[in-house]
Structures are given as structure tokens and as C-alpha cells.
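job 3f2a | input accepted
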Amino acid sequence: MTGLQIPILFFWGVLLTGWLVLPAFFARKSYQQSVSRVPVWAAIAALEITSLYFETAFLLSFVYSLAVCVFFLEILVKSLDRAAVVAGFVTGAILSAAALVCSEVLVALTSLSVSVLLQPYRPNRYFFFASGLAIVPIVTPFAVTIQDATLLPLLIVFLTLVHAADISAGFSGKLGGHRPFPVLSPNKTSAGLLGSFVFVCSLAVLLFSFVDVGFLAAFSVGTTLVLTSVCGDLVGSKIKRVLLLKDFSRALGVHGGFGDRLDSLTMSAPLIAYFLATRSI
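job 3f2a | predicted structure (281 res):
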């Protein structure tokens, strides 16, 4: 486990240092905004590295579960049909609990977020129900790890890769290119998606080598997590577009709300839980 801490510390160290230094050269006008992103990511890094160091998933699980509850409240407050959001949240909780007993349900949970994307751009009851339903499965990989603490190193690797997908897409997206989702997420570019794919797959091969996972499996997981994190981010964007929001809230300053940080996990997390529960990597 000590061997894994070193590359993860190095990853976050380089990333956070780069965030403090590079914008001063390439984005002088937005330097303050770029730097203001560092504290939240530093807190996430510290939480996950501390959990890895002390070999306990309890604090990590508690913080992420609390964040999901805040995400739920951010949607609930803005919703035009709060009963539907609550019903969706409760249904998601029941399905997530069932998934911990029958791991095959985790694969189905991964696709639940798609129901949000398929809804029309109208604030109807089904949309709000689907929105409440989609966010609960974020907690499933943490619940699996609480049951088996030996899975913690794998969980940390998975989380690092999802964070890396989110961050690298933002960095490489500055290079421009085609905008594949002009209405749903106009800031996403082909350069961002390609940069995220290259970076995450490379990082996956590196990090998984420390937990005895082969090249092909690591590359496949990296590719999958890039796709699911992008889809999860689109789910968050769809909810915000329907609610006419730029961010879920201002709780995290320039990051927006808790939902803006968690949305990429809406599709990734159940799949991560499946990998952990079935030891299929």
C-alpha cells in the first residue's frame, strides 16, 4: 500500500502545483479563478490519501455520503416537484441497498442516469424522479469498501482516475476543437475528450501496476471511466439546463455546488462498485 501512496501523492502534487503556476503564464486574466479551484481539490486529495495511509474507508465513505445528501438538497431546493425528487431518491436508496446483495444490480444502476439524459428539456415529474434516482448510487463503491477494507487501494485508484478525467478534460479542452454537445454542455470540446482519454488511460496503467493489475485491464478500465465520467457530467449538465442553473449552488465557490463535483460519479460509481464487488479487475 505504501508503494501506491507515492504515485498518488506525486500525481496530486504535480497537478496542484501546475494549477498554481501554469495559469499565470497561459491564462493571466483568469489566474485568480484558476488558483481558487486548488483548495477543494487539495481537500479531496488529502481525504483520499489520508484514508489510504490509515487503511480505513470510514471517513472517506462518511464525507462522500454527506456530499451526496447535499447534492440531493441542491436539486430538491430548485425542483418544481419536490415529491418526485424525494421518491426518486428513496427508490435509488432501495436499489443501491439491493445492489450490495446482488452485484449484478450495480450494472443496472450505471444506466439509471441515462434516464435523465433521455428526458425532454421540460421540468416534468418523471425528470425530477429520475434526477433523485440517479444520484444515490454514488455511495455504492464506498459501501462495498466498508464491507471489505482490503478493496480500499483499488477504490482510491478508481477515484483518482475519475478526478483525473474531470480535471484533464478541463485543461485539454482549452485547446478547442469541435463541440460535440453544443446545447447540453457547450464547453466540452473534442480536444478535451481526447486529452482526457490519453491522460486517464496512461495514469490507469501506471497506478494499477501498483496493485497487480495488467496493462490491458488497466487500459480498458481507464477507457470505461473516461466514458462514464463524461456521461455523468452530461447528466449533471442536463439537470442544470432544465432547472435553468449555471451551478447547483455556490457552496464550493468557483467549483459551484457539491453536485458540480459529484456529477461525474453518477455513472462511474456503480460500475466501480461492480468491479470491487466482483473482483473483476
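job 3f2a | The radius of gyration is 18 Å.
job 3f2a | closed
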